[in-house]
Amino acid sequence: xxxxxxxxxxxxxxxxxxxxxxxxxxxxxxxxxxxxxxxxxxxxxxxxxxxxxxxxxxxxxxxxxxxxxxxxxxxxxxxxxxxxxxxxxxxxxxxxxxxxxxxxxxxxxxxxxxxxxxxxxxxxxxxxxxxxxxxxxxxxxxxxxxxxxxxxxxxxxxxxxxxxxxxxxxxxxxxxxxxxxxxxxxxxxxxxxxxxxxxxxxxxxxxxxxxxxxxxxxxxxxxxxxxxxxxxxxxxxxxxxxxxxxxxxxxxxxxxxxxxxxxxxxxxxxxxxxxxxxxxxxxxxxxxxxxxxxxxxxxxxxxxxxxxxxxxxxxxxxxxxxxxxxxxxxxxxxxxxxxxxxxxxxxxxxxxxxxxxxxxxxxxxxxxxxxxxxxxxxxxxxxxxxxxxxxxxxxxxxxxxxxxxxxxxxxxxxxxxxxxxxxxxxxxxxxxxxxxxxxxxxxxxxxxxxxxxxxxxxxxxxxxxxxxxxxxxxxxxxxxxxxxxxxxxxxxxxxxxxxxxxxxxxxxxxxxxxxxxxxxxxxxxxxxxxxxxxxxxxxxxxxxxxxxxxxxxxxxxxxxxxxxxxxxxxxxxxxxxxxxxxxxxxxxxxxxxxxxxxxxxxxxxxxxxxxxxxxxxxxxxxxxxxxxxxxxxxxxxxxxxxxxxxxxxxxxxxxxxxxxxxxxxxxxxxxxxxxxxxxxxxxxxxxxxxxxxxxxxxxxxxxxxxxxxxxxxxxxxxxxxxxxxxxxxxxxxxxxxxxxxxxxxxxxxxxxxxxxxxxxxxxxxxxxxxxxxxxxxxxxxxxxxxxxxxxxxxxxxxxxxxxxxxxxxxxxxxxxxxxxx
Length: 821
Known about the structure:
Number of helices: 31
Low-confidence stretches: 475-479, 653-658
Number of strands: 26
Mean pLDDT: 92
Helix content: 40-55%
Radius of gyration: 29 Å
């Protein structure tokens, strides 16, 4: 029988335990957080630290109210109320066993109890405990920080109740947004086992090839589809002591074909000197203040110089950017698989090529030999590395991209051992670990080593991707799924089945250009009847599988038009963008936007005009045009004004009543809206996006990134089947008017006089205020939505003509940072 899990306790208020508690609070769970008794309560201090943590552990500070601190001496009886108890104390077998024995005296029968151990044997921790404890006991290994790292490894023991595991897995998937991977009860489980080998192997190759720290980080970063922080920068972020602990656990408890790998001497030297990474002010990298100015010279603004560790000398030296010709060429190859093949098949004398081959051949061999030791399939290993280490592709997916047959041939030519498992794959007549399976829910199948057959990659119900929908050619519900219906270089219309179409952006950073504007407008124009495929759908979703929803409009193209003084073209482009957002808002069929990650500028405007929004919890949304010297010109200001008026109760369905609501409420609402737009505020979560006015009260938030598309599709179907009626363009909007405009401009003037903003900031702020207020008109004067759009367009164009705005755009394109001029 499925358990109801409502109350949760976390034992241990260290960094990991406190952040697990924080993420449970993010999901709306009340949490009891316990630690040892002390003069200064440990758990209470941990909750206070959560409010200051960077990156933020909580979606918003108010969620800390859901965490109740306590201690092991006084509050263990309260565990009788808990449905799930998570142990996260220090990694010491006896300490864990002693605490859990005390806990078991108060735990109610059937209450689930799990450990966040990063590698201690689960069966050893629970040895000798009651049968009820053993049935409810297994591992739940969160990765740090739990809010951002999606991997959750679940590790059963032979006695674990499968239903209890299923209940926790479902909760962690849907409520906590975790990607659940089932691991064997072996040291370091899956991700840390493979990841630890990879790090140690990289360090070994670095020393053999006499590479620098900077060169290795350049080689093991985005070029390989690994995180930008690569190897040593990642270790600095995680902590050298944390990696040291994980390595010690593996080297103590694991005996395999690469057991000789260990942390090098230079690593131990850093540990001895307490250089633990970012938390200690330095690790493999650190920053130091620049040398003092010449005596007698005027004082200079202090600057920091980046230093890197020289593993050969044991000292720090100025950071030296890596200069590797192969990587410079690889930057021009967008697809990771194509880039990998280019890097592996380059000049054998090139050190980048030699590094990649040595590192990856070792990784593939090690990973293949770990089946079934740490996992029964390649799928769990790949998924664990994608979710736990943020690799774009797991080791077996990387192997497929490089080509299994030709890499095995190369291994044999060099006399390197070839894993028995890959020989089994090739002997069965197959040349890859995965293949397309259009009829499967995941549209992928994998080679199952145990049975020697292809099996569908299973996905939980409700998990869906655009990539899978593109490959589908099946009947789902009442309507067939046809894959890609239409596409152009910037956008595709994809059939999701059941009468729902998906508008998917696929430009670089999903920047919004003419291709996207054209596709969205033609698809959503009411009753278009133009044979473009849009009329075949009852509802639409706007989303993609990318890392970010959209970085906004393509400002490079805008800058080129400005430099060529093509003002008519700029006007035409803005009108076209506004037509697109209006097509979204006034579509006769519901349009649900499903944003995630960076949703900036024009991307935010698309969401603001949608019938509803179903974002991922990690939503960084904002109207950021002010940062490049502009203002929102695609209807963003208009929609924010409408939201401010509605929030203040100033919008009414009866135009004869004029204002409906207190002027003070309207003033406060407009001030908040102006601050959000004029300071280019970006939400740090979907929860904060709601408080900033970017999301409406009825909008839904999905915790699991893999469920966003399915949830948005279901939301769109609900709206369509509920008799959706598109809104009508308003012509009677009560203008905030000249009084509020004067107040906002006064605030801008005070900021300028105080030296907080520049002359150009003041000009932009005043222009934003004019557009939001509908101009210097009498308060309550009826305005149309088109009037507000016209104000936006004219304000946007006027700022385009400013030299300082052009400088800001150019600087941002060059550096990725805003310019304050």
